[in-house]
Amino acid sequence: MLLLKLHVLFVLLSGFGFFMRGLGHIKGQAWVQHKLVRILPHVVDTGLLVTAIALLVTLEISPLTDWVLAKIIALIAYIALGVFAFKIAKTPARKALFWVLALLVFAYMYGVAITHSVTW
Ligand code: HEM
Question: CA 12, CA 77: separation in Å to the nearest integer?
């Protein structure tokens, strides 16, 4: 199913982009401030959300299904941890902490998506 493939593509792009930007932020590299690097994640994440909603509609899955709800809540946590890692935290150690926590939440969402189970 094309929609599902697109969703997974956006998921992988989002995760890879987040991983790379985290490394750049922690090491204080200049490329993370580049306009494209700042805009692209929003494009990718919008694609991820649009395909997610389209999947719910086409597969007739309720957003209140436990594993979908777990993904939505985890996504909010992932976004918040990203804001802490990239905008609020000032020291490399704190940036790294929030970045690692966000990556763990990402891995959780991946596990939930594949198993359709909140607890894997
Ligand atoms: C909160 C927003 C999201 C919603 C509503 C959502 C919804 C869905 C739906 C309905 C499917 C299809 C399930 C099926 O085939 O039965 C799916 C698949 C998938 N989602 Fe998401 N998703 C969201 C975010 C994410 C995120 C953030 C990730 C990764 C961290 C992710 C990873 C995946 C993966 C890997 C699959 C494919 C699973 C498989 O091949 O069986 N999704 N998602």
Answer: 18
Residues in contact with ligand 1 by the CB-under-6-Å rule are 4, 7-8, 11, 52, 55-56, 59, 61, 68, 71-72, 75, 106, 109-110, 113-114
What does the pLDDT look like over 27-84, one tens digit per residue? 999 999 999 999 999 999 999 999 999 999 999 999 999 999 999 999 999 999 999 9
Domain limits of the chain?
Answer: 2-115
User: Which residue's CA is the closest to the ligand 1 atom numbered 20?
Assistant: 113
Measured by CA distance, the residue closest to atom 4 of ligand 1 is: 52
The model's pTM is 0.92
Distance CA 79, CA 111 (A): 18
